[in-house]
Design goal:
about 325 residues; five-stranded mixed beta sheet; 3 domains; alpha/beta
């Protein structure tokens, strides 16, 4: 059995399904998205029955936290895969109840990972980074308008200055938060990598601390920098990024790769030139550099080491003594 839960700001729509071949739910419930609503679902949940939830930001995270307190197993439905599955079984309508039924069936048809629960310190950093992202987007939009709207330049200047000041203050708060937590001790080492700044270092460290990837390739796949191969009809062996997972970290590391082109004596600039010599396009070469940066960040976090340019492409040899 499996329970699928569709989460929203105000309510939870849940459905208990017996088997993957079930066409109807054993029961369906709509409860408030509150601690009391979660408690109601916990009382209705049979023993050894997991919940399946799509990540919907803070709405689903709070449900997962409340369930964890009660030792209830909650599984994560990957958004893209779950969306495609739900579309495949919902031909005429889309409602919260149908989504909860579909999520339960989705969980019964494949193995899923437990829903990741952020620690409070990671959650706080993510909120600060999210706020900074919103302010940065607003600043970029206003600056573009200022360039295009000559008669409105003076009117936009105070808002631009105010937002820029708020971003600067937020950066200081992020830096202070990172320095005060053991979970982010790798941020300082990551910040030393050419092209990577303190904000990107904080964002990458937050993801690494929250997810605890046991292999660098898993982190690369999580941010969508892994290369997929397409073989269908006339398209054979074509390669391209999967672009699944954390788009924000993928974008930041791509920008860091671009920054390396302007960094003197950077080993990543040399890699870019080698990739271009192989015939790769500029974008593909930058993606290769971003992928290398991601693996390096994982290594610095995993092993607690410092950045060493000489070891980026020349790792130490294994001890061959018996």
């Amino acid at each position: 059995m499996m329970i699928g839960i569709d989460t929203s700001k105000d309510h939870l729509s849940a459905a208990l399904v017996a088997t993957a071949l079930s066409e109807k739910a054993v029961w369906e419930r709509d409860v408030p998205n509150t601690p009391s609503g979660v408690a109601m679902l916990l009382r209705l949940t049979p023993a050894d029955t997991a919940w399946v939830i799509e990540p919907t930001g803070r709405y689903s995270l709070q449900v997962a936290k409340e369930a964890k307190k009660a030792s209830q197993l909650v599984l994560l439905a990957p958004p893209r895969k779950a969306k495609k599955y739900l579309e495949s079984i919902q031909s005429r309508a889309k409602t919260d109840r149908l989504d909860s039924l579909g999520l339960a069936l989705f969980g019964l048809t494949r193995p899923l990972q437990p829903y990741p629960i952020k620690s409070d310190v990671v959650d706080q950093l993510d909120q600060l980074l999210s706020a900074r992202k919103g302010l940065s987007q607003a600043l970029s939009s206003l600056r573009q308008q200022q360039r295009e709207l000559s008669y409105a330049r003076d009117a936009l200047s105070p808002s631009i200055e105010k937002i820029a000041s708020e971003i600067e203050a937020l950066d200081q708060k992020i830096a202070q938060h990172v320095k005060g937590a053991d979970e982010f001790r790798a941020a300082e080492a990551i910040d030393e990598v050419p092209g990577i700044g303190p904000v990107t270092a904080a964002a990458v460290t937050s993801r690494l601390a929250a997810k605890q990837f046991d292999h660098p390739d898993k982190f690369v796949a999580y941010i969508g920098l892994d290369v997929g191969v397409v073989q269908s009809g006339k398209r054979k062996g074509e390669r391209g990024l999967t672009k699944q997972g954390d788009a924000q970290i993928r974008r930041l590391l791509y920008l860091c790769a671009q920054a390396n082109l302007r960094t003197k004596d950077s080993p990543f600039r040399e890699q870019f030139e080698r990739e271009r010599a192989k015939g790769l396009s500029k974008t593909a070469a930058l993606n290769a550099v971003a992928r290398k940066l991601a693996k390096l960040c994982w290594s610095l976090h995993q092993h607690g080491t410092r950045y060493d340019a000489g070891r980026v492409y020349n790792p130490p040899k294994k001890d061959e003594t018996p």
